[in-house]
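User: My instructor asked us to take a sequence, write out its structure as tokens, and then describe one feature of it. I'm not sure where to start. Here is the sequence I was given:
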Amino acid sequence: MPVPHSWVESANGPDADFPLHNLPYGVFDAGEGARIGVAIGDQILDLPAATAATGLAPEIVRACGTASLNALMSLGPAHWSALRRWTTEQLRAGAPASQALIPMKDAAMKLPVEIGDYTDFFTSVYHANNVAGFLRPDQSLWPNYKYLPVGYHGRASSVILSGTPVRRPRGQMKPAGAERPSFGPCHMLDYELEAGFFTGPGNLLGDPVPIDAAPGHIFGACLLNDWSARDIQFWESQPLGPFLSKSFSTSISPWVIPMSALEPFRVPAFPRATGDPAPLPHLYSQADQQRGGIDLTVEVYLLTPRMRDAGAAPARLTRGNFRDMYWTVAQMLAHHTSNGCNLRPGDLLGSGTISGATPDSLGCLLELTRAGADAIRLPNGEERCFLEDGDEVILRGYCERGEPGRGDHLRIGFGECRGVVLPPRPQPCAD
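Assistant: Let's start with the prediction itself. The structure tokens for your sequence are:
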């Protein structure tokens, strides 16, 4: 079946991130304050202007007139579908050209959501096995890992938009062989390649979300970089897990891809190895096993100061795929609420590092360099064990089906999630 095109020509290229079958939501400012928009090609459809006089339900129009996506997220799947159908019809080839388009180059992107809570999971079994080998070489994978999606409560206040610089954190560290810990700038700064998922209507305190109902509580996805100070993490993580090693910054991409745009790229859940336990009943759904995975290709690029000065392109470090995650998004949400914990519209769930089985699919420097033991060599001859000041990390993601050039070729992109590492601020002196 031929893929429909838009009258916005920039949306129709074979490598366009934002074609008609994507239509992600974001918040932008083109000089009139923060407004909700939909990405189409290299343009933004100004939703408050476009929906001002339509037949859409009043609650949808009101939600589109706010300065964040939270109100829209709270409405639920029926309203999301209605808005998506309407937007698709306005931008489909043959529809009248809208006057509510803003060139992306003329707009500043804002955080799309007022994030009340942020939970980061640990759902790649490849990443978990690798990290267990670094942190606990005398032991195997944690015994609970294959029974539940492990997670920790992150810091919502330090979630930042792509393009915001990241300050190298200070913290307490205890190198191998040292008698006492010391305090100072992190030496083992790392990125973590993740996907983020925003919740929709949420649930009341005390009311778990059944796994078959979980998809109705997931609004959309983005790219997420869980910046990590490994030397701080190694010392502080026992017994309660990461704290200051993660809470200094988490970057997200500006456009939220609707889950409905990801439907053509759904795949079966990760196949469990022979002998692995079956999910417990509250984490098992036949429908989720059949289509709970997502065929999402994710990549990490690094641009060093020397490469930037030379005008060189960023070097790709990693190409992985979200289908390699041991737990599905629905399982994450169902487990999160299984004790009655209430999720609210706009809460953020991080997938954990996306790593695969091959060396070129590892989602962080901790794995790529074996905790700093083997430096990676960049095309210009530079080497890295961990990030240096001035380095820029760039995450990219896309879903693709069919052959480019054919009429049934389908591709959507997530855009980019970028961040440059800055040196730490001067240490304040005690009076």
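For the description part of your assignment, you could build on this observation: The chain has a mean pLDDT of 94. Try explaining in your own words what that tells you about the chain.
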